[in-house]
Specification:
Elements (H helix, E strand, L loop, with lengths): L3 H30 L17 E11 L3 H18 L3 E11 L2 E10 L2 H8 L12 H4 L8 E5 L6
Antiparallel strand pairs: 1-3, 1-4, 2-3
Length: 153
Amino acid sequence: MIRTSNFFGILCGLAVSALILPLAAFSQFETLAVSAQPLPNNPATTQSKKAVARIWHGTTLTSKADEYYAYLLEAGIKKIQSIPGNLGVQVLRRTDGDNTEFTVISYWESRDAIRKFAGNDIEKVSPLPKDNEYLIKPETKVKHFDVLFSDRK
C-alpha cells in the first residue's frame, strides 16, 4: 500500500516529467529549425556551394532609364560575366515617378575573386565611364553578403 506522502511525491514527479519532456523535445526542434547550415542529403537544399553576393545600387532619371539600362548591360554586365570567379549576375529595376533605381547583384566564388577585378578595397564602387552622365548622387560603397541559401524556380 502507498502512503499519502509517497503518493504525493510520485504525483509531483510525474507532473514535473510531463512538463520537462515536451520542453526538451521542443528545444531540440528549435535548434534544427534555426540552423543556417545545409542539411545533409536534403534535396530541398539547392545551394551548398559557398558564394558571395556583391550588391550595387544606382538611380537615374526615368527619362534616361532605358538608355542607361542598355549601357549598363553593354559596359558593365558583360564585363562582370567575363571575369573568372563570377557565378552570375542579376539586374533589378524599380521606377518611382521621375527616378528609376537599378540594383545589380553579382555572385562570386569568393572575396578574392572580387579583388581580382575591384582591387583590394572591394567595398569601393568601380564606376563605369559614363555613369556621371546618368546617375543621380552616385553611391561610393558596394555591399557584400555571404549567400547562405538560394532557390529560384
